[in-house]
Amino acid sequence: MVDEGILREIYAVLEDRRDNPADSYTSKLMKDDEKRAEDKILEKIGEEAAEVIIASKNNERLVEESADLIFHTLLLLVYKGIPFDNLLEEFASRRK
Length: 96
What we know:
The protein is an all-alpha fold. It is built from 5 helices and no strands.
């Protein structure tokens, strides 16, 4: 079983890519150019959400597509400067 800390690790990598742009897919998505960075990220989330729906309906690649959707949602939170702990606190508040 994989430790849930992997999400925190991915989040930290995304923060680093935001703060120290590199020649990477995520740095490019978060970089403003002719098309606003936020728009690019939101477009990816919409695309990945549609792929999750299709994967579920076809009973194939649901895990992979869900991971892509979660990844891009984390990327949006990083781009917006929202701490990972805020997400965890939100989930915790829903368990009360």
